[in-house]
Amino acid sequence: MSSNDPIETQPEETKNEHGHIKSFVRRAGRVTEGQQRALNNLWPTYGIAYEQKQLVLDAAFGRQAPCVLEIGFGMGGATAEIAAAAPETDYLALEIHPPGVGNLLKLIEEKSLNNIRIIQHDAVEVLRDMIPEGSLAGVHIYFPDPWHKKRHNKRRLIQSPFIANLVKYIKPGGYLHCATDWEDYAIQMLEVLSAEQQLQNTADGYAPRPEWRPLTKFEQRGIRLGHGVWDLLFTKK
């Protein structure tokens, strides 16, 4: 949490001690001074340490409210914007990279947000060990690593076993919202989500971008260049 050293990149085929292939690598990058200050000063308030113990969501946020899980928030800009626009909802945000965690903590302070909590750990293990089944009003997975080389496709997060497990934690009537700017990954996402019997598509194929998902700067640039973006919005039956 406190080092400014470059983040070590893991070998691509490494499995963790629990045996699942990780869908991410620890990319090289440095934590800025501002991000480090946020990590030092704000993590005790808005951060939640990973542990093999079920999390009491109402206690974590200090109130009773619908809770949405975000998996992989990057630098946190969209997360902060979404949370600011929906103060009645709590957001549990997962990210492994310290610069992103530090940046979201800065945004929490700048925007005076109290409806975000952060866990810096592998989402598969957080779900297994910390999230109560049937507790989530929704899940956001925006622009996960596409692992675009065919030999790396098996590392993609959106796979049938992961989704079959994930839906256990969503309340009936809750939603799963994914977005990607890689067409072949969008096709895979649609196939995987459509095949999950507990999920129902809200659209005929891909969905329009919901108003709650802001356009990222990267996404806006891609649209100007003619790149596609695909949203998928499913609800739990």
UniProtKB/TrEMBL annotation:
Keywords: Methyltransferase, S-adenosyl-L-methionine, Transferase, tRNA processing. Residues 1-21 are annotated as: Disordered. Gene3D superfamilies: Vaccinia Virus protein VP39. Pathway: tRNA modification; N(7)-methylguanine-tRNA biosynthesis. Pfam families: Methyltransf_4. The keyword Lipid metabolism does not apply. One of its GO terms (molecular function) is tRNA (guanine(46)-N7)-methyltransferase activity. It catalyses: guanosine(46) in tRNA + S-adenosyl-L-methionine = N(7)-methylguanosine(46) in tRNA + S-adenosyl-L-homocysteine. InterPro entries: SAM-dependent_MTases_sf (IPR029063), tRNA_(Gua-N-7)_MeTrfase_Trmb (IPR003358), tRNA_methyltr_TrmB_bact (IPR055361). S-adenosyl-L-methionine binds at E70, E95, D122, D145. Substrate binds at K149, D181, T216, K217, F218, E219. Its EC number is 2.1.1.33. It is an enzyme of class 2 (transferase). It comes from the Bacteria. Residues 151-156 are annotated as: Interaction with RNA. Catalyzes the formation of N(7)-methylguanine at position 46 (m7G46) in tRNA. Belongs to the class I-like SAM-binding methyltransferase superfamily. TrmB family. PANTHER family: 3-DEOXY-D-MANNO-OCTULOSONIC-ACID TRANSFERASE/TRNA GUANINE-N 7 - -METHYLTRANSFERASE (PTHR23417), PENTACOTRIPEPTIDE-REPEAT REGION OF PRORP DOMAIN-CONTAINING PROTEIN (PTHR23417:SF14). This is tRNA (guanine-N(7)-)-methyltransferase. It comes from Leeia speluncae. The gene is trmB.
